[in-house]
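Final report, Chapter 2: Outcomes

The project's central promise was a pipeline that accepts a single protein chain and returns its three-dimensional structure in a standardized token representation, suitable for archiving and comparison. That pipeline is now operational. To close this chapter, we reproduce one record exactly as it appears in the project archive, with the input sequence first and the structure output second.
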Amino acid sequence: MKNNEFHSGDNGPKPLKKLVKADKGQEPYHGRYEAVHSEYHGKYEAESSEYHGKYEAEPLPHHGNHEPDAGEYHGRYEAPPKSGYSVQSHKKSMYEPLREAKGRKHRKKSKKSAVLVNGLIKFVSVAAALVLSFTLTLNLPILSDRDSGGNISIINYIKNLKPAAKEGELDKSGIQNNLNIDPNAVNIDFNDGLDLPQLIEGQYSILVLGFEPDEYNTDVMWVVQFDIGHGRLNILQIPRDTCLPDYTSSVTRKFNSIYTMGDPNINPPIQRTVNAVQENFGIPIDAYVTTTCPDIVEIVDIIGGIPIHIDNEIVFEPDKVIPAGDVTLNGDQAVWFMRFRKEWLTGDIGRMQNQRRFMAAAMNKLMNIIEDEGRLKLYSYIKEIYEKDLMYTDLSVGDLGKIADFASTISMEDAQVNMVPGEDARFYAADGNAYSVYSVHKQATIDLLNKYYRPYQTEMTSADTSIVELVTDYEYELYDDTGATLEELESATEPVRDPNVIPWRKEE
């Protein structure tokens, strides 16, 4: 053992007696305690051969405790190979007939499968070609379009079909020359993005008429205008008793009789009402929707009812009652709610106030359908209403879908409801009798129309309307400012009840 080697059992390192100058051929100096020039392996490290651990086998392939030697393992009971004998050859010869039979069967199946696959590929290819050809044909502009004068594809033709236009088509030639478009509001390149046949770019107005059960007079008269350019909805209520002496032969001269008793030379009848709206209120009508009370019943039931708050019990008839509280109106109850007027102090005006509340609730329902059930579900409702003939309209299914999409983007605070300003009056008819009617306040109405319903037209003047005032010395102006947003109507209360009217439930 070298003198300069350190041993853990000694008391310490022994001093060197003499320093010897290293020759150039000697190993480099490693320091006092540096190991000799060999790789250090530690106290218990093995020599410079590969270390296998205390119990590790020699560097031969490991076969496990009971694994046989490098010979082929045959299993516990398998016979050892004899000289000139091969297990594999024995097994092959033993099962060769069976394998050959299976091979023939497999080849037959493979051939049959190949034939089926080839046939399937050919069928899919032909079907794909037919579908592609059919799709291309549907999209080719091969049909003439009466409205545009050009050609349209079959798909667009189907989308533009109006199977519910049983009231007929509107004649828009007269109004097109009197639109009075404001060039400062609409330039020639203006496009509101709504792909509809509009009289004025930026807006779309629909006349909505709801008929009484006998389908003779109209009970509901609304002009629903979508101000697309400003993202708003404006609804104008026209009282059913509005007196328009020049538009109906009815002895009372009320608006609700124009459809049935208007100028017989104007057809279809819906055109009579459209003309009255355009010539008195200056709103170009793009389309119409008409329905009846029985149809409303089914429409409301289709969409699952209308949730609303009822302040006090409404007894439409002794056996037709709507309870107070938060209720979901079914179809029948919806009609009772909109037609009820017996107990309202203001009669038909009170009924119109309730109809406003119904509008707000219906708009909320539309939003909920889109949010909870999706747009496709809404379209399925529209399709079902169409198929069941529950309303007449010159709107196509595609048009209704576009309008519903736009309506769903409008907030409740951007939806305004107004009523034509006026007051109750007496109309003395040719038969010598006086009838209770609604007289329009002309200037107040013009101001209202200019503010909300003519966003892209020049301002209306008294010379632009056919309104006839029965009362010029107004007794009251209670209805001159009755505008409200649908958001405000959500929390509106019921109209004032007449204390002198005996409710149905109290009548003997």
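Archive annotation: Confidence is low (pLDDT under 50) at residues 1-12, 16-25.
This record, like all others produced under the grant, will remain available to the consortium after the project formally closes.
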